[in-house]
Design brief:
single chain; 7-stranded antiparallel beta sheet; 17 helices; 474 residues; 6-stranded parallel beta sheet; alpha/beta; nicotinate phosphoribosyltransferase; 2 domains; TIM Barrel
């Protein structure tokens, strides 16, 4: 495993030395990871926690790391000696991968000595921001397609790691396979792929190219039919090869369309395949697809069975950054919690202070999610008593729940620097996402003009926040 301890911003280390010099380096601190609203973010699919746990367990400065920091200058020998023996000894509480999460709620909380907690900020945000973003984008695309989406984006990803872990996140979001062979091996997920236009162009004719491919892959023959002329040559030649395959005892898999009017071409190709006796041959489409173009194609009646989505998925083209942040929520002095808050002229940027828990409230009759409820640590929710919810800013907006259940969204991921939950297969994260999404009304997760899901504060947390905003302390 790579040692990613230097995967951090310099200011995390300069602050670390400052804390060391001020005697605050061992002070226990609590940091929350959350994201703020965006017009393109209605809900997100949490991902990246596995990598957070692996990173924290492996955190240490090598001799080369210390030598490099010494060469950078500005760090004292006393501080370098201190971090040379540094390991992560704190705890992390986080939502499960595949959990549906919303703006403002802490999806991951780090509690650790200040230098450790500060040092890990950048890497944790890198893992969680990127994979949550791609898992969310994949979920939207899969929802539009109704399933059958394959991730094809490695060559367009912003680097190898983005392609590898983007493929992982895409699987959590609902993709059924990836073209990325390395990711397939690393995460034990299905890989898929057939041919490129160069294969067809390398033979004397399209027909010979198709025949050559069928000879190599008689039981997995899916032919790319748009190199020259989709309907006049590509599909007819594919049908000719499919008949030859059938005569030799094999059945074709189907065709792929990569350009042109995909709605028209797929409908015409479907007719041709059906009339030729190949109703089970699938039609796969690729080529700069996303949830918007897929929805449009389906509205046009396109006859497409599976979708290969690359650039706009792996880069989350319309929203290239989740915008998750890592904010100090509390420190401890002599065992006493001192809540911290970041103030701003922008209401949305004022943080929620203190150590917190996040609950999801479900309707007792339907089992559907009603709201998320952020409390101070130690608060309990009595499901037998009415619970009043109110908007955290527009407090006159209120509702009372009388028949509900509550579930704590977060569990302990790391304790005393060691992972306490076992690693599970990516498919389990994807299954969990599907299960939880089914517990939401469609109005909250739909792509167009969704309802705003409620994320409310308990009266105790709201009172604490108000006190700190008004400068009254706890």
């Amino acid at each position: 495993m790579r040692n990613l301890t230097l995967l951090t911003d310099l200011y995390e280390l300069t602050m670390g030395q400052g804390y060391f010099n001020e005697g605050k380096h061992e002070q226990s601190a609590v940091f929350d990871v959350f994201f703020r609203p965006n017009k393109l973010i209605t809900y997100s699919v949490a991902a990246g926690m596995e990598q957070v746990a692996d990173y924290l367990e492996n955190l240490h400065f090598s001799e080369d790391d210390i030598a490099y920091l010494r060469s950078v200058g500005g760090f004292s020998e006393e501080f370098l000696t201190y971090i040379a023996g540094l390991r992560f000894t704190g705890s992390v509480t986080a939502v499960r991968e595949g959990e549906i999460v919303f703006p403002y709620e802490p999806i991951l909380t780090v509690t650790a000595p200040m230098v450790q907690a500060q040092l890990v900020e950048t890497a944790i945000l890198t893992f969680v921001n990127h994979q949550t973003l791609i898992a969310t984008k994949a979920a939207k695309i899969v929802d539009a397609a109704g399933g059958g989406v394959m991730e094809f984006g490695l060559r367009r990803a912003q680097g190898a790691d983005a392609g590898i872990y983007g493929a992982r996140a895409a699987m959590i979001g609902g993709c059924v396979g990836t073209s990325n062979v390395y990711a397939g091996k690393l995460f034990d997920v299905p890989v898929s792929g057939t041919m490129a236009h160069s294969w067809v162009m390398n033979f004397s004719s399209e027909l010979e190219a198709f025949r050559a491919y069928a000879r190599s892959f008689p039981d997995g023959c899916l032919l790319l039919v748009d190199t020259y002329d989709t309907l006049r040559s590509g599909v007819p030649h594919a049908i000719e090869v499919f008949k030859e395959l059938r005569a030799s005892g094999h059945e074709p898999k189907g065709i792929r369309l990569d350009s042109g009017d995909l709605a028209y071409l797929s409908k015409e190709a479907r007719k041709m395949l059906d009339e030729a006796g190949f109703p089970n041959a699938i039609i796969c489409a690729s080529g700069d697809l996303d949830e918007n173009s897929i929805s449009s194609l389906k509205e046009q009646g396109a006859k497409i069975d599976s979708w290969g989505v690359g650039t706009k998925l792996i880069t989350s083209a319309d929203l290239p950054a989740l915008g998750g942040v890592y904010k100090l929520a509390a420190v401890f002095e002599n065992g006493r919690e001192i809540p911290k808050i970041k103030l701003s002229d922008t209401t949305e940027k004022i943080t929620n202070p203190g150590v917190k828990e996040v609950y999801r409230l479900y309707d007792g009759k339907t089992g559907k999610a009603i709201a998320d409820y952020i409390t101070r640590a130690g608060e309990t929710i009595d499901e037998t008593e009415p619970l009043e919810l109110f908007h955290p800013v527009e407090t006159w907006k209120r509702m009372t729940l009388t028949n509900f259940t509550a579930r704590n969204l977060r569990t302990l991921l790391v304790k005393d620097g060691k992972r306490v939950t076992e690693s599970v297969h990516v498919s389990r994260h994807a299954e969990y996402f599907r299960e939880e999404k089914a517990r939401f009304w469609e109005e909250y997760t739909r792509r167009d003009m969704p309802h705003i899901y409620k994320v409310d504060l308990s009266p105790a947390l709201h009172a604490l926040k108000t006190q700190l905003v008004e400068g009254k302390g706890e």
